[in-house]
Amino acid sequence: MAAEAKVKSIFLYPIKSCRGISVSEAPLSSTGFRWDRQWVVVNAKGRACTQRVDPKLALVEVELPKDAFSIGWKPNMSSYLVIRAPGMDELKVSLCNPPQICDGVSVWEWSGSALDEGAEAAKWFTDYLGKPSRLVRFNEELEIRPVDSDYAPGFRVMFSDGYPFLLVSQGSLDTLNELLKEPVPINRFRPKFVLTYFSLLVDGCEPFIEDLWKEIKIGNFLFNGVKLCARCKVPTINQENALSSSEPTETLVKFRSGKVLHPNRKGKGQVYFGHNMVCHDLHDGSEKMIKIGDPVYVISMFLSYDDTAT
After folding, report:
1. What is the rounded distance in angstroms from the CA atom of residue 69 to the CA atom of residue 25?
2. Taking the CB of residue 132, how many other CB atoms lie within 10 A of it?
3. Per-residue confidence at 197, pLDDT binned at 50, 70, 90?
4. What backbone torsions phi and psi does residue 117 show, to the nearest 5 degrees?
5. How distant, in Å, are the alpha carbons of 50, 67, 170, 212, 309 from that of 207?
6. DSSP-derived secondary structure for 115-143
7. In 3-state terms, what secondary structure has residue 171?
8. Coil, helix or strand for 259?
9. 283 in helix, strand or coil?
10. SS (HEC) of 215-250
11. How sure is the predictor about 2, in pLDDT bands with cuts at 50, 70 and 90?
């Protein structure tokens, strides 16, 4: 079987809605990439804070120990999540589990307990966002957050919006940027995988063909496309300065809306960019690794957009 594409970039987002980390390889776990959306900032009511309401989160940088992306690595008392933002002192959060339990944490439809990272982290985010806030970590020992069983029964995430993996091709981004007056970087769409085609020009592979990938293998791991990614306002927020505009959504509406892609189905007002995926080879609890350059093999495809889930 010939490879259709290869992994170009891998991104992790340790704190939901904050800046991501670009890595050359990342261990997979039952909830997606290890460390991905393991933390979230919550308001006084325990609700998740995101860029939709707090665009300043786009300027929060995070750093993990280099060894944290090695299979089998365990944190010790000198292991920290380092957090930085404009005008703020550096914050270090121990990667050893904090003792406090915080009840009443909610992300969209899910609610449960989380691990509270303490007063120092709470003051840091309260000062930065200008409202009472706390930093909490997903409570893996006590909580399970399943994905929508209508699309991917049996799979789970931590604080991701919906699914363990989001895949986008470089060709799709390039096509969008050809239509924009000011091109946008891939970080507007916060993907976990960016793929590049081996023979885009020679073979005439179409941009957005990943929308129709039903079953693929990345390296040795089997993935299924479960739902096209409906975009919110976050792609309109410049991740370098936290300022919002009408693009790229204004342009995407013209050729990536439900009205264009599947006019006879519901969801006509949604705008789609990227494909949500799950991996079938992670249920044994052991960690496995995905690397930049890994080949991507297309096993089966949806016949048309009418067959895809949205």
Report:
1. 7
2. 12
3. low
4. -85, 5
5. 29, 35, 8, 11, 19
6. EE--HHHHHHHHHHHTS-EEEEEE-TTT-
7. helix
8. helix
9. coil
10. EEEECCEEEEEEEEEECCCHHHECCCCCCECCCCHH
11. confident
Single pTM value for the model: 0.94
Distance CA 258, CA 182 (A): 24
SS3 301: strand
* Residue matched to tokens 């020679």: 202
Return the amino acid letter for 290: I
* Local structure of residue 264 (DSSP, 8 states): T
In b/e form, how buried is each residue of 286-297, taking b as 16+ CB within 10 angstroms? ebeebebebbbb
The size of the chain, in residues, is: 310
Is residue 168 within 8 Å of 184, Cβ to Cβ? no
Strands 32-33, 288-291: pairing kind? unpaired
pLDDT of residue 200: 33
Cβ-contact 33, 218 below 8 angstroms:
no
The structure tokens 């307990």 sit at 113
